[in-house]
Fold this protein.
Amino acid sequence: MLALWGRPVQSVQKLAGGWNSTTWLVRVSSGAESAQYVAKLADSDDGDAFRSGLRVASAAASHGFPSGAPVLTADGRLAVDLPEGVLALLRYVPGRSPSAVSDDDMRRVGGTLARAQLAVGADRAGVSEQHTWPWAWADVCLQELPMASRVHDAAARALDEARDVTTRISPRMGVVHGDPGLDAFRLRDESPQEDGLIDWAAAMEAPLLYDLASFAVMTRETPEALPPCLEGYRHVAPEVSGELRHLGVFVRLRWMCHAIYFASRLERGITRGAASEAENRERLSEAYAGLTEPVDPAPRSA
């Protein structure tokens, strides 16, 4: 299938991990030159969000940001539909994953996230209609996914609270990455100005604060990571300071997304990412706990 991109493939190596997709490192050669790409296969059911993320990554790359943007096929397509799913070829972004216990790394992560948001901007043209704020997709999922009533009600309250706060305070809006975990950042120690952010399949329109809340949730086991991340973010986008008192609202919104995600995995029988059905259930319970536990609005050092 990689022949559709018109590049001479030298080797293909499967990469580890992947909760939402399967990926391979692809090496191509042209004469004495060689280059690396990443082939990514997403489930067909997630094709709309996957293609939306490809468009957003392209927008970020068009402004010079290292985003792992897609390479068009020889006939101009972003991705190809296969019986196994939706396949795209992405530009390889060199670098390493950051360490959550390194303040310097976390400051770079915060600055990189802010630069990524600025590169994409408020242009939501690449985002599918259901993923524009206030997230019609979330209403559909809460109506249709099998979910314990207590989990459903807590998730619905989190969504209503985020919508209400957004209406009242008019926070900065734009296209967010949607899933800025540590593995999505690529730090280049020889040129930190080229630090990048990849894997845009969860990109949506939302309050920009949502990405910081997502980072807080995904680094919850190392809470000391958040203050320097906020410091780095604020260095690039100081406007966030006036919004941080509402961070807890969007932390709960992120937990709502977790609840929907793991309820969907259970319904579809997905165990990719080294997760068993039991672990999917455990993660759903964890999401409920996150939805109902008190959250400090923002670290005191913020």
The mean pLDDT is 93. The chain has two domains: 10-91, 103-292. The chain has eight helices and ten strands.
